[in-house]
Amino acid sequence: MNAMSDARGRAAGLCCLLAAVLAGCTPAAPEAPAAPPQVSVTELQASAVTVRETLPGRVAAFRSAEIRAQVGGIVQRRLFEQGADIAAGQPLFQINPAPFQADADMAAAALQRSQAAWRRAQSQAARLEPLMRADAVSRQEYEEAASQRDQAAAEVAQAEASLARRRLDLRFARVDAPIAGRIDQALVTEGALVSAADTAPMARIQQIDKVYVDVRQPAALWDALHAQQGANPPVVLLRPDGRPYPMAGRALFSAINVDPSTGDVLLRVQVDNARRLLLPGMFVQAQVVTAQYPEALLVPQQAVQRVEGRPRVWTLEAGDVAQPADVQLGEAVGQQYRVVGGLRAGQRVVVEGVERLTAGARVAPRPWQGPAAVPAAAPAAGAAASAPR
Question: In this structure, are residues 268 and 252 in contact, taking their beta carbons and an 8 Å threshold?
């Protein structure tokens, strides 16, 4: 019985081994082909592009005047409200006029005395002239009378000038506003002694219904900005949070010197400031137009790779086949680059999924939904900067 059981067990083992060998000889099922990688692509379209450079600037008053005394004396009254709008010629301070009035009265009396002496000398010369012709008096005596007449006339002119000067000092005792604008706080009070030699002003007036914005621009942008300033391009002013002010500026001129310490050139912008939103000394951001292109191609920055320092993108050819392409880039406009060369309108460029690509690989494209959908030529495109080519 044991021998028969061993024989049956060996037969079962051989059957299992044979089944395993036969199973190993069965051919494997073929693997399914790998799906092509999915990428996001955008089609290049030519459009008008305005490139802007955002630069820091400081607000300066359109006109500024320091109020100073032209005569010395005691300030009697302040004739304005501090911080108010002032008209040109409006009285601001009254200096004690009594000394100047007295000097004017003395000059007027001296003028009357000189006029009386001149009339007497004139009458004397007129009386002696016919007598000299009749040889009743000598010529020398007449000439002395004529000289006294002319000297008296000169003294009258001198007295008139002295009186005019004293009256001018009397008028200067009232300090008037030389320009229209907004006046700051008074820097002197009633009872203060002022003089024409004072170094500190009595007050300051600044015209701020129009202001200047002085922008420091890199000298490298001089050519581009100079070309745009021929038409006085508008300048957009930005608040600290990036929102634009409701009024635009107009570029006037650039300085002719470059700051040797910073390499910057001054650009002056004039802004209408009727609502007084800009105050002298404020810092603002100015968006200056540096270039305008009627037809330009823009490629998203995300699509650009750097290979040995050279910019490269992946394009899709016929049959959705990916191929690398070297490009030449210009300025950065928002989150895109302006294409100078290497691409043409209508080409499809891979934006997302470039890390999975090889030359000649077939891909599954889908439209790219990103910030490039925003028109790049809109004023909100942001700052522009030069990109390496």
Answer: yes
